[in-house]
Design a protein that fits this description.
two-stranded antiparallel ribbon; 1 helix; 154 residues; homodimer; globular
């Protein structure tokens, strides 16, 4: 196993988790900057060619993990591996962002949902998508369809 | 920062990296099993509802990192953050798999590209796709289009 190390940090408009939009159909349009440590700048070579990136980052303000939890917009509990809960056995977050431009060690992106100052663990190119017509989205689709209407939080 | 811990292990047909299909347009159709440690089984609750999963795993047979490297099907070097190279500052792999069925602590999946015995770090539901018409794929698209034809390895 390994000990994580930051390759950079997120600049985000969100200083507190309460500020991050949550809920059904929420679109993360917030812009932010991924600032990579100068020692890793060479690793960004050719990244400008990709429109979208996977960002792996650390839930560094989350403690411990919870195997069952309720997301903010559904009061039914779901397994941690069926949600994006921050309280995970390995506290790794995953966000897809749109790369707007690169300025040296700065990647200007759209779609951040991390807190300001979050440690970045890795960046990977987003190379292909599963066609949306092939996706089934379990409990999330049920909540969206209102099957759980009596218990949806506003 | 944190020290990684396995939540389970991959059973895959691939015992050696040379057996993993690589190259342009390669489709990962291999079936495998993600076996989750019994202590984390509750975390799988409701996962059956999702057709596709993100699997985060550890490049546990890779040593160190390389900021510039050439993928097997392009001899031009690219930055590690613009490739899926195993030699990364944090040795974390990411694969999207199709969930075929769950049997207790076993997730039977299609699309494995990990080595047999690989440590799993996390599983997350795949909730939405970037429409393929919105994607730009940089050097990868160039190689596909044959712009680098003189140097493409067969």
């Amino acid at each position: 196993m390994f000990t994580s190390r930051p390759i950079g940090f997120v600049s985000s408009p969100y200083k507190d988790t309460s500020e991050i939009p949550k809920g059904l159909g929420v679109k993360h349009e917030a812009e932010g900057v991924l600032t990579i440590l100068p020692e890793f700048e060479t690793g960004l070579t050719d990244i400008e060619g990709f429109s979208h990136l996977f960002v792996l980052w650390e839930f560094d303000r989350s403690q411990g993990f919870e195997l069952l939890g309720s997301p903010p917009f559904d009061n039914r509990p779901h397994g941690v591996f069926a949600t994006r809960s921050p309280r995970r056995p390995n506290p790794i977050g995953l966000t897809v962002v749109e790369l707007l431009r690169r300025e040296g060690i700065e990647l200007h992106v759209r779609g951040v949902d991390m807190l300001d100052g979050t440690s970045i663990l890795d960046i990977k190119p987003y190379m292909s998508s599963i066609p949306s017509e092939s996706l089934r989205r379990g409990w999330l689709a049920e909540v969206e369809a209102g099957k759980n209407q009596g218990t949806v939080l506003p």
